[in-house]
Amino acid sequence: YSIIVTASRKTFLGLIVLIFAWLWTSYKNELKRRPSYFIVIFFLILALYSVTDYMIENTYMGTRFREDIVDNPITERRQGYHRIIFYKEGLKLLMDNPIFGIGLGNFQVYSEFDAESHSEYIEVVSSTGIIGAFLYFSIYILLWRRLTKIKKQSTDWEVSYTAGLLKAGMVMMLVIGFGRPHFSNLLAWIYLSSAIGYAWSQERRLSYEGQLYYDWFTSREFRGRELGNDRGKMRCGEGDHVRY
């Protein structure tokens, strides 16, 4: 309700993305085993459609959506729409300073509107260049891989579910990033650091419980029950076979 009252289109779209990403990342395997869950998803989609239809027809946020999609589509605007101009400015700054960018927080100095770019991607690439953007988005890539590994290898349903939920949150952040920058937002860093800490703690727990193994001779990871020799039974976290 508060999202509709505040007329925040990004937050509303982010909520929808979060719901579907959550279903996919946390319940994908359940859907394969229990097709009846699709009935629940059908009614969930129906409810979301009803809420969205009501919102578009009866709220100020719906009016804003209609203006951007029907009355005066963003895709047909060439001038006067700030976000399009921000993207053009950001790409020009990237072309002029491709390696190191113009420096953190300097986009608004170069912008004719004296404002942030309202885009995670434009803000990062223009401020830090290709090198900085690669390092920054590596956080998302590496965290996604670690959470995926934990979800696959953990036998604890709660851990697997939490890993999927954290991945869904990352998807939402990346989508909302087209409309706002996260790298300068404290709450975004709290979320990412919490997810990184959770991934690290679960990797340690899996290694101590003997569920996660690493064989340096073959450079492969195994689950405990897949191993049948002494060399492979060296656990992560013990002796010289520790892998971080």
Secondary structure elements and their pairing?
Layout: H1 2-6, H2 9-33, H3 37-58, H4 60-71, H5 82-96, H6 107-110, H7 120-153, H8 157-176, H9 186-208, E1 213-215, E2 220-222
Antiparallel strand pairs: 1-2
Helix pairs in contact: 2-3, 2-8, 3-4, 5-7, 7-8, 7-9, 8-9
Report a brief summary of the structure.
66% of the residues lie in helices and 2% in strands. With 244 residues, the protein is mainly α. Strand 1 (213-215) and strand 2 (220-222) form a beta hairpin.
What multimeric state do the chains show?
Answer: single chain
DSSP helix fraction: 55-70%
Order of helices and strands: HHHHHHHHHEE
The pLDDT mean sits at: 78
- Net shape: flat
Q: Provide a count of the helices.
A: 9
Low-pLDDT sequence parts? 214-219, 224-244
Main structural class? mainly alpha
Roughly how many Å apart are the termini?
A: 44 Å
**What about the largest sheet?**
2 strands, antiparallel
What does this 3D model show about the protein?
The structure is a single chain. With 244 residues, the protein is mostly helical. It has 3 domains: 1-76, no CATH class; 78-203, no CATH class; 210-244, no CATH class. Helices cover 66% and strands 2% of the residues. The protein has 9 helices and 2 strands; from the N terminus they run αααααααααββ. It has a two-stranded antiparallel sheet with strand order 1-2. A hairpin with a 4-residue loop joins β1 (213-215) and β2 (220-222). α5 packs across α7 (120-153). The longest helix has 34 residues, at 120-153. The two termini are 44 Å apart. The model is unreliable at 214-219 and 224-244 (pLDDT under 50).
